[in-house]
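Bug report

Summary: structure tokens for Putative secreted protein (Por secretion system target) differ between web form and batch submission.
Environment: batch mode, default settings.
Steps: 1) Submit the sequence below via batch. 2) Compare with the web form result.

Sequence submitted:
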Amino acid sequence: MKTKLLMMLFFGICSLQAQTTHDLIWERNFTSPESDLTIETGDTVRWTWTDDLPHTVENDAGSTETFNSGTITGLNEVYTYTFTVEGVNPYLCGIHGAGNMSGIITVVDQLSVDEFDSSSLIMFPNPVITELQIKLPQNMSEGTITFFDLTGKQVLNQLINSGIKELSIDVSQLKSGMYFIKYQFGEILETRKLIIK
């Protein structure tokens, strides 16, 4: 009886510490927001080729971690990577480029039980020309929105007071191109990709 109890306790503890594998397809024109994930440290991302073209999965400029699948060709081929450091990891296909195959893996230390629902954070239009509209989740306290260019340089920072549910940010002073936007509310971190025309 004691042995069974100890075994049940052991498997219970192991299951609490088990990490998650997140699956993404990997094919031409697979980009944000479908290719973006927020995961916990220790989680694994598995990219599966859904076409028979050659692709890579590799970190882009400003990535916290360094990873590279090398060139892989073939339908249903797979590349996996386990993320161990908290941070933001833009990635792309080195063959087809950021405009055709790219995304962002945001790694957080540990998601709370009251997990951030990223679908309730809405920004539009994307691509944007002058004014970016942002609708924030209902339960967010004060935080920041920070814009980074592709080199990882911070180009804009906006404080958000608690209670604000919508805001408009003038992006007309930024050059055309791709940017990463980091939303941070206490321990909650979400990163999105934005194109400015």
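Above is the batch result. After comparison, the two runs are identical; trailing whitespace caused the diff. Confidence is low (pLDDT under 50) at residues 2-17, 111-115. Residues 88 and 106 are 5 Å apart (CA to CA).
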